[in-house]
Amino acid sequence: MYRLDQKLARIRAGQYTRNDFIIADAKDGDMGPSMTSCGPKREKDGSWSRHYTRPEFLDNIRAVVEQDIVDIMLTSASNMEALTDMGVFRNSAVKPAIRANDTTDVWVCRGATYSKQPSRPFRSASLSRVATGTVDPAPGAPITGTDLGLYSITFNNDLDHDYHALEAFTDFRDDAARNNFKYFLEVFNPNVDSGIGPELQPHYVNDVMMRCLAGVMKADRPQFLKIPFNGAKALEELASYDPSVIVGVLGGGAGTTRDCFELLYQAEKYGARVALFGRKINLAEDPLAMVRFMREVASGNVSPGEAVKAYHGQLEKDGIAPHRNLSADNLVTEAVLKPEQTK
Q1: Fewest beta carbons less than 10 Å away: which of 23, 34, 70, 287?
Q2: DSSP 8-state code for residue 180
Q3: What does each C-alpha distance from 219 to 127, 176, 180, 225 come to in angstroms?
Q4: 3-class DSSP state of 110
Q5: What is the rounded CA–CA span in Å between residue 148 and residue 214?
Q6: What is the value of pTM for the model shown?
Q7: Each residue of 284-295: pLDDT tens digit?
């Protein structure tokens, strides 16, 4: 059994402890920014002249999986296949997952303007190929890849676009059911002007998220939710609304190291049980050290501020130049986190 399954079982049984907090690494950027998502190949002095190649990026993913701290490794279907062929997930407790659908609001390729238009959903990954390697659904066949994926929706308070997004979500659930495929649901904030004020928007996101699940039976519901951290009030409202729904947060931009640890701390405090971070890990000076201290913060062993200091101590020990000095890196810069930053 994967570590994820064990943690989900304890959370659903009301036996959650902070050691059960689920951490996922989002290495699925090739489904959005594409080539640049592999990240800059930095030298120890912080300089860089190119981005990682795909083989180098796959090796970076392998290192995180073999570290055996994260609970989920999220990739594109093609990279999951390559990693599986490399034997990365063989006998691993880290659960592989794929981005199961595409949305135009994460298409932020160089020169592209797709993300400035209302989000449109589509799918390029075949669930049957991902799960069992077959053209058609093969329930009961051995899993050759993975049976877990991320499905993403962006609501914009736009009737036509949102209606189309819900229809696409229905089609996906039907396909997932035929393939015995599980998923977790990501709902972004509107990617264009929704006409909703900033104070009300977090609650709009909560409402439409739970609205889109109201007609969905237990067998077809997501394993957990993934949403932006829109502040303590909105997260607490969502997490307490339906105890049967496990809520998680996404990482957003890279920010400071304190932003990363502070987001973990506040998310867990106000009811989240999952964190899925991409750039906050991938763009760190030392991704493996970042993951290690993320786990320490999530488990309550250190405070966010203490973790930043310890992380910088590790960088100094390994001769790695930090992006910022300790003082600057220990500042909370994301506005949504500032109302209650910890010492």
Answers
A1: 34
A2: T
A3: 17, 11, 10, 15
A4: coil
A5: 22
A6: 0.95
A7: 999 999 999 999
